[in-house]
Structures are given as structure tokens and as C-alpha cells.
Design a protein that fits this description.
heterodimer, A: about 425 residues, mainly alpha, globular, B: about 170 residues
Chain lengths: ~425, ~170
Amino acid sequence: MSVATIAVITLFVILLVLLLLKVPVSYSVGIATTITLLISLPWLPAVTTIMQQMTTGIDSFALLAIPFFILAGDIMNSGGIANRLVNFSKSLVGSFPGGLLYVNIISAMLFGAVSGSAAASASAIGGILSKRMEKENYPKPFSASLNITSSTVGLIIPPSNILIVFALASAGTASVEALFLAGYLPGILLGVAFIIWAAIVAVKRIFPKEDSVPLKQLWEDFRKAILSILMIIVVVGGIVFGVFTATEGAVIAVVYALILSLVYREIKVKDLGAIIVKSSKTVAVVMFLISTSMALSWLFAYNEIPQMISSFMLSSFESPIFMLLAINITLLIVGTFMDMTPAVLIFTPIFLPIVTEIGMNPVHFGIVMVLNLCIGLCTPPVGTLLFIGSGVSGVEVSKVIKPLLPFLAVMVFVLLLVTFIPQISLFLPRLFGK
Amino acid sequence: MMKRIYKSIKRVLEWMLVVIFTMLVIDVVWQVMARYAKISSGFTEELSRFLLIWLAVLATAYSRSYKGQMAIDFFYEKFSQKGKYILSLFIEFSIMAFALSVMVIGGINLVYITLKLGQLSPSLGLPVGFVYSIVPVCGIIILFFSSYHVINYIRKQKEVISSKTVRP
């Protein structure tokens, strides 16, 4: 057996065992990487190299966008933005049959984009709407599964931290600007697909509708929500049109959110310390994961593992269609066990060379990968959103599974469309010449 | 005694995180404004990258105090109370092994090498070893937090194993 084969086996066995024993994901990746490197290096150079790769891996100005977007999202959240977005969506679409369902989807799209966190979206929007839906006799498991799946849309609609992570993992072949532009249509497509499915169910089961609101109320709710929505437009617009970089755009989002919340008197200056500590807790998870995963992807390159896997896959799948299906199925399985950030960081260096070999655009692949891994966030055994969404609606996870299945089917359908119709992702980036 | 140290380290870390995060925001805002005012500010990008390393490493150390790193507990839930107890110890010892070998020893060696090479950062002229020095410090903090958790697990051992619901 070659060194590379032994390394692959050692790495994945140790990683899997540690993960299953509940060792935190970031530490599992770090430990498995270190032990695997010990096959080829003595221990002091090995630990020093790992440490060096971990620090140089996060020594990046582009990555700084992530802590900033997290902070901007947290400032917005403590300022009660979720309520404003829900009110606005309610005035907009509440009066259709099953109105609260669309309110949930549209609020999640807006909120997810603004806050950049699907988990925050599932708990904030679900928290506001689930009581209301229960009172109006929406079946709890159905509304919970709608909330769970629609909160993923915000991960694809920019600004999106996971797309920044992909840009990093792609080693410069996909720019943040292009990925942000590419995210819009697939994200909106997914949202619309959810709305269509919700409408079919709502009409069939005769769900209630909200009273239609007078135009004055709609205007009032719009006015309150628009400043928050404007943030996405200003920040993403600025990034896409090259006014500032993604990182600078993210810091502008922080300043914007700060001014907005202070002017609305929704937070006080003395609350800021607590908000920053809260953001730091999220930063700890994301950045440490990135740090150890960067050491891991260095180890991949060092052992020439991507070349090994890609030559194996290129020789076993002749047709690009089967190749893409095989990659998608692998990612779906990975996604059910692993969170998005480590999955993107670990599997991008492996799969990206393969798909570029068969002529796929790296930006397109980034969207496919993120959309694919969104599905895993909603499924057992490790579905963050599944647990959060069931929790806020107060319904058992096991009861959510059945109504969840059609929503997952919708996601898989959209994933197939986005995979095999590159224009959905690439139309906007091409239009703007990115 | 240990609890007091635990609480004060936590408080110092929170304080440092707030200061560094605020400095980061100010630094990059300054960079944007300076560019529009056409003032040259070559140091801001380098400073922000160093601050990001400090923020990430300090936040990681801080996250050990409340066991904040994401983990998969699907199979863990299937273990008996005694199994959960033993696993909890195993998790802390794995983390300590990583913190000690990679962060403390690997980190000190890395600091030593970069200082010996006299590597200076291009625009601030800061020794790069100084930037890395936060890593072994945080490794030691993680070792402390994990030992704190281990001691608490052992102290509550009987209670956890005999009960059906108490988490180790």
C-alpha cells in the first residue's frame, strides 16, 4: 500500500471514531490530522507544522468578513429585526390561504440573508410564528418542517458566510463577488419552490388566511422593515460592484446595524459588550473549525490525496452526469453527518479538481455544494436546524420527519435543477462580468 | 479556589475578546475611510489579520470554558450513564492531548523558530513570533478549563452514574 492510501485510511478511521464519540468536530479534525502526519514526520516537526498550518490557514483578510457578518447579524437580532421582517411579510402575503406559511418562508429568506445564520433564522422566525400558527390550527409538525427547511434559503442568498468559506477553500478559483451574485437565483428558486409546495398543501387542507391589511398598514410595516432590508442591498451591492471588498462590506454591515439599532433605541451602548461576547462564541466555533480544517486540507495536498481520489473517480465515471450525481450523493451522505463549514473545507479540495476537469465552473460548483449540504442540516442524525426548529415549535423530532419528507424532496429537486442547469447560478455573475 | 481562577480567566478572556473585536471593527472602518480620503494606511490590513488570529485563538480558548465547540451527540445519547461518564472524560483528555502537543509544544516551537529567524511583519515591523505567542498561552488556558471539567466530572461521578437523567 502506498503512503497516501495508508494516510487516507488512518485519517478517516480516526476522524470517524472521534466524531462518533462526541469529541468536538474541530478537535477531531485536528487530532486526526496530527496523528496522520505522524506517519510521515517525527512528532516535533509534525506538531509544529500542524500549528503553523492552523495559524496561516486563518491568517487571511478575506476571512475577516465572517466575524463581521456574525457581529452584524447579532446586533440586528438583538434589535428586534425578526419582528419587523415578520410584520412586513405578514402584510404582504398574509391574506392568501395558508398565509402564515408564506410569511414564514419570506421572513426566513429576508432574515437569513440579513443575519447570515440559518440557526438564528429557524429559532427567531419559528419562535415568533409557531404560537400564532398553533392558535390558528396549522398542524404543528407541518409548520415546523416548513420553518426548518425554509431557514436554509438564507444560507444561499447573500451575504453568506458559507460562500466566503467556499471561496477560501477553492483557493482563489471562485471569488466571493461571483459567488454572492450566483447565490441569488438558486436561493430565490428554492424559496419559490417551498411556496409552491406550501400553497398546494394549504389549498388541499384548507388552511386559514389572515385578514388583509389596509395599504396604510402595509406601508407602515414596509417602512419599518426597509432599513434592515436595505442593509443587504447596500452591502452586497457594494461588494458586487467593487466599491469595497467583502471584508470591508461586512464591517460596513456592522456599522450600519449598529447605527440603525442605536437610532431605533433597540439596543443601548452598554449592551454591546454582551453582544460582542455572544458573537465571539460563534466566531470560536467557525474560526477554529476553519483553522483545523485548513491544516487537514494542507495534509491532503501533502499526501497528494485529492489527486488519488480524483484519478479514481475520473476513471470510474465516464459520463459527467454520473460523476455529478455521484458527487451529489456523496455530499448528501456527508451532509447528514457533518455540519456545513467542515464539509465545505474538507471536500472542496477533493471534489473541485474533479468537477473542473469535467468542465464545471467553480462558482457553479460552490452553489451546488452549499445547496446540497443545506439538505443535511434538516435531516437526522445530525441536523442542527431539525433540532432547533422542532425545539422552538415544541414538537417531537420524530413527528416532524413525515411532513419534512416532501420539503426535502423539493430541495433535492431544486438541487438537481441547479446542478444540471448552470445558467441558474451563472446568469447573474456573467451579466455583471464576474 | 479552582472555581475562582476559572471565573477570573473567563472574565479576562471576555474582556480581551470585546477589546480585540472592537479594535478590528475600528481598524477596518479606518481602512475604508482612509482609502476614500486617499490617506495611505498600509498597516491596517496586516493589523487586522493579526487581530483576527488573536480573536480566533482567544475565542477558541474561551469556548472551552462552556464546552462550546460543536459536537455530534447522536451516538453519545445511546450510551448508558456510566458510558456517558467515561466518554466525557475521554473527550476532555483528547482535547487536552491536542492542546498540549499541538498548541502548547508545537506553538512554543513555532514561536521559537520564527523569533530565531528574526521574521518581521512587512508593514508593522512586528516580530511574527509575537503574533503566534498567543497560541501556547491559549493552549495552557484550554488545558486548565479541561482539567476543571475533569475534576467536576470526577466529583459528581457517583451522582451521575446512579441517576438516569443527570448529564456528566
